[in-house]
Specification:
366 residues, alpha/beta, Rossmann fold, 2 domains, four-stranded mixed sheet, globular
Length: 366
């Protein structure tokens, strides 16, 4: 059996225990060794409160040190993490908990257990995380991912985006989402890439965190990028950033152009879905200026023509649990809710969205 994400994490802690791992907006920093100790203590607490391996634990936390510590503790105990959107209300949290038959809900201070009389326990030991998505019908959809699939997606992104261990990620996007897991959480787990985070979307605060911590990577979404482009932030605030990434919604060419004019940085379009992880990336950033495509397929990802202008995405990062679809080379694959085609340059051009029962598919990031 190959190494898991926890093995890579332990190696990075042993190699540089004092290296910064997470930097809070208030200046409080956590080293790799600190996160290791905190997660060990959390494991002991959960065990004493009756948490068992292979059950599900909903994580109802905002971005930050406590979020990562809880996720790390889940990996250590073999508990399946269910990261919830930070904006979930109490009733929504309870609905997800009951629907998934979780062992408990962790909010950073209290473990709420005994929510379900008969919690669900996986037979498979490799399932690490449950991603939640609206899916093609607008109803909540649960996708179960093995640790190896999460690592495969992260490695694909690390390689195509050139994410380095010495980089500092500007952690504005929700870590609980597929985008955040692949671009923020797993690069820290696998190679120690530091995160400087903030939960605010105010341009001045984002610029302050970026400038103070000399962030080099900025994974973001169009609404935040547009707010920055229309703000009075200085070009020097983002001077340290070498890669600006946009996902989560369509990146309009006018926004890519105005952001480049304002800050001198290309915005690199990143296209993916919850089911598949990353799919395409605009390596040069030039395709985003014209909107001609969403970039080239990421290495390790195949795009396969389907019916009616729809397409499949196949890779080792696609979820396999409960998914019988396989590509000719045996990789799990998922049918996208978008219409699309590869152009002569090998770039993916999107031609609209498929619709089901009058509800638009919302599972794709762009």
């Amino acid at each position: 059996m190959g190494k898991g994400s926890l093995d890579y994490w332990n190696e990075s802690v042993d190699a540089s225990p004092d290296a910064l791992a997470i930097i809070s907006p208030d200046g409080v920093s956590a080293s790799r060794e600190y996160l290791q100790r905190q997660s060990d203590q959390l494991c002991q607490r959960w065990i004493s409160e009756g948490l068992k391996p292979r059950g599900l634990l909903a994580l109802n936390l905002p971005n930050g040190i406590e979020w990562f510590t809880a996720y790390l503790a889940c990996l250590k105990l073999g508990v399946v993490a269910v990261p919830l959107d930070p904006g979930c209300g109490a009733s929504e949290v309870m609905n997800v908990a009951v629907d998934l038959r979780v062992e408990g809900v962790w909010d950073g201070s209290c473990l709420r257990s005994e929510i379900c009389e008969t919690p669900y326990f996986f037979r498979r030991k490799d399932i690490a995380v449950v991603k939640l998505t609206s899916g093609s019908t607008g109803r909540a959809k649960k996708l179960f991912f093995a640790d190896s699939e999460m690592m495969e997606d992260a490695r694909n992104l690390i390689n195509c985006m050139g994410i380095r261990s010495e980089d500092t990620n500007l952690g504005v996007i929700p870590w609980a989402h597929s985008y955040g897991l692949g671009n923020i959480v797993y690069p820290l787990l696998l190679q120690g890439t530091c995160i400087a985070w903030t939960n605010t979307v105010f341009p001045s605060e984002i610029a302050k965190v970026c400038r103070k911590n000399q962030c080099t990577l900025f994974p973001s979404v169009p609404t935040v990028l547009r707010a920055l482009a229309n703000s009075d932030c200085e070009r020097s605030d983002f001077e340290s950033v070498r890669l600006v990434i946009s996902a989560g919604a369509r990146l309009e060419p006018d926004l890519a152009c105005s952001f480049k004019s304002r800050f001198g940085k290309f915005v690199h379009n990143f296209y993916g879905s919850t089911e598949t992880g990353g799919i395409c990336f605009d390596q040069s950033g030039k395709a985003s200026l014209s909107g001609v495509s969403v970039g080239e397929p990421i290495q390790g990802v195949s795009i396969i023509e389907g019916r009616g202008k729809r397409f499949y995405v196949a890779s080792k990062a696609v979820y396999s649990y409960g998914n019988r679809k396989r590509s000719p080379d045996g990789c799990p694959m998922a049918l996208m809710g978008d219409f699309g085609r590869l152009n002569s340059a090998g770039q993916l051009v999107l031609d609209g969205r498929a619709k089901y029962r009058g509800t638009q598919n919302k599972s794709s990031w762009n």
